[in-house]
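Thread: Modeling a multi-component assembly for a lab meeting

Hi all, long-time lurker, first post. My supervisor asked me to bring a structural picture of a complex we are working on to next week's group meeting, and I have zero experience with this. I have the sequence lines for every component (975 residues in total). Could someone generate the structure of the whole assembly? Inputs are pasted exactly as I received them:
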Amino acid sequence: MSAHDLPTPGTARAPGPEPGAASRSGSATAPAAGTAGPVASVRGLSVSLQRQGVRSPVLRGVDLDIAPGEIVGLVGESGSGKSVLAMTMLGLLPRSARPVITGSVHAAGTDMLHGTPAQLRAVRRSRLGVIFQDPMTSLNPTMRIGRQITEVTGDSGEAVTLLGAVRVPEPARRMRAFPHELSGGLRQRVMAAIALTGRPRLIVADEPTTALDVTVQAQLLALLADLRREFGCSVLFITHDLAVAAQITDRIAVLYQGRVAEIGPSAQLLHHPTHPYTAGLLGSRLSLSTPRTGALPTLPADGVPVAERLRGCAYHTRCPLVLDRCASQQPPATPVEGTGVLRACWRDSTAVRDIHRAVVPAEGLAAHAGPLGAVHPSPGGSGKPAADLAVEVRALGCRFHSRSGFEPRHTVDALQGVDLDVRAGEALSIVGESGSGKSTLLRVIAGLTRPTAGTVVLRGTAQMVFQDAGSSLTPWLTVGALLRERLRAAKVPPAEAARRTEEVLAAMGLPASVLKVRPGELSGGQRQRVALARAVVVPPTVLLCDEPTSALDASLAASVLNLIREMRRELAMTVVFVTHDLAVARLMGDRIAVMAQGRLVEQGDAHDIVTAPADPRTRALLDAVPRIDVPAARPATGPADRPEAAR
Amino acid sequence: MIRFVLWRTGAAAVLLVVLSALVFVLQQISPGDPARAYVGGNASPAAVAAAHHRLGLDRPWPQRYVRYLWHALHGDLGISLRTHRPVTTDLGQFLPATAELVLFSFVLALLLALLFALSGALRWPGTGLYRGVLLLAGTAPAFLLGLGGIVLFYGHLHWLPEAGRGVDTSSPTGFVLLDSLLHGDTGAFTDGLRHLLLPGLALAVAPAISIGRILRAGLERTFGADYVRTARSKGIREVQVLWRHVVRNSLDATLSMAGLQLGFMFAGVVIVENVFTWPGIGYYLAQSIPQSDFPAIAGVTLLLGGVYIVVNAVVDVLQAVADPRLTV
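Re: Modeling a multi-component assembly
Sure thing. I ran the full set together rather than chain by chain. Output:
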């Protein structure tokens, strides 16, 4: 199938931002849309890529303009084509994927599709900057960061200035540091400094905060907004989280299956979505006000073959408002009167507004308090008999040495004097920034790391679910073999084992055909379900989860969290859930324990911690949770900005 | 970094002492009386006893070891029982030929490895067959390659000489290529090169294939790395991307492999030298073994072992230079 059979009409042009519109704010930074042409413009872009011998359309007719000084958010689930769009705009699509491209892409005055390699290099060198997702792997490990920044310009004075501009402390000294000597947040700042060399007109930021914890994410978002103000550059900000986009973007484009579902001013789009997919994304976002009881809202899963899905509107197989024509005819992009929004949907925009209202609860701290499960006794009170406790941690310390040659260079106290009880059947969330020791604590409880002080008592059996399901599953074993391995270790007879594997897969919402498949062939969400299936196929007494959903899209994350909650109810497990996101912690734990710098700084009932935090570090974590109704990086919002919150 | 170098040097020194102890023990437990071998089969018991005393064999073994170590440190590895000359003098005479062969062969191996790595990374029909042939050649023992080379290039084609180093081997430094170059003697240079080519190739093929495979794997892995994409996003030229970002990050395993192979080549040279009657250490060793010339055997072992240890220490330091994370 050709990737070009469904082009959008050339007239469907995304409007530039409207500085005067009531829905926009922070007009001091507003781009003067009328005075200059767009920094980047994408017209009717279709891209198909070849993966493992199969060619599939990734972008199917995308139009996008970025005005000077504008921050445009590109939002969508993984697989929606947002990174491919970014790489196409930079002329960086890997040749090994055999891209077939139609349409046009201009960035900073250069034709990125037909320019010579030298022209593309020149524009990347001086006019475009990029910030990639993973600061751990995106910097050359064997090159000093100073050299990586000055590689293009050779100007070390500029490099020091830029490091200062991205708020790297002691910039002159850091020039000689290697990437491994810096934290993740600092490395991402270095990436930003590299992107800023040569004063680019456009910075493409491809999920720049996804690998960072909430606190560092908030800092980086504020930094990007500042840089736009100081340097006047435009930003294409790619993210899968609408709330993150809400923090800094002027406009948002929602991408679904390689097409723009909806594009418009951020506030307008977030509060009055006109596409069912946008409404669905907003509804499945986990926030501090998501009801704690009942299942978490998710988008329906998509089990329909790609070819059928792409015949009409790509969303028709998941859409709650689907019409007959949606399955056969692709909706064109049409403007919504008086809003600056372009949408591609056959339904009337008011219909979408109705489902949005039905799904999305009012933002702000809702009163959905109350415990999650019914298995455990009410929280609070000390002096419980020890037999009641599933996990008992006393005066736990864990010290790491980093050695060099003869003597230890320095020691890190990952845990210091931690006391923690988890009652049988209880769900406890442990929250903290990266480096706070929360994962170490979990590993010590699981017996994977040996503590240097104190004791841990774990009554019963424990199983662990890791953050990166991709690397925690043995790549050469089939899913069936992975599950049978656990059952064999528990001496379950083969006939019984076959029944159990089928049951557990059904419980995870996975088809039985998955049994014969290896982890590499599964999607991220499916892999995390398999990891969970492996953990509970022989039901443990205690389930230990280490950020199992932080690498997943919002909707997928919600469905995995739902599974964990269901499993807990059905198997009466104790759950210890580590996360950096207080919104998730609140949903997964009866109680929350907050960690900072290896110590337990606060613990208590989940609702109390979130509504009335006692410790400043808890408050900092709470403030860092991105919220749609509070655009932190922007000044005061107009009344038109939040009618939804007033409801 | 400096501390790492010091630490690695210290470790190498300890290894050398351990090696010398091993060599000494081997000497002690080997059958045969060195004193008798020294004076000859027909000597009187008194002469044997005198030789015993002269060689220090009548003292207790710890004392003998300390003496051995002390002398070795001062460049005295004893007297060869066969040539009746100091082993150090013998080694000094035979070492340059071996060093020339191994170094020539190592450079050849590195060049071939680069060629194999780059050609193996390309995708063209028949890549599988090509790799198979290379793998087969890599597993062939050096003496087989040497003999095959002699049969083909000397026996049938008459392109290359059969054996030896050439006409004039009495060059001042012992390095024929170096001397002829310094004297501008192109005739001697070509002759030396022609003699080096077959033994050099025989010795180089297997290491080249091992190093090439590792290098290819390293390059392929690094090409897909995120920081290579970052480098491309900066708009620098592909040559710079390759040189600054890809090559250096592909070197770690390749350096280890090259170091290991250089060590193995010093061991493999013993056989190749005998196939080509190359007047080097290996040839000397092969003549010393049938005569139970223990000081000579021990000297060669110590020398080759020492080279092996030093080479690996240097490789470790080079790796640390290439990848700063290793010294942390």
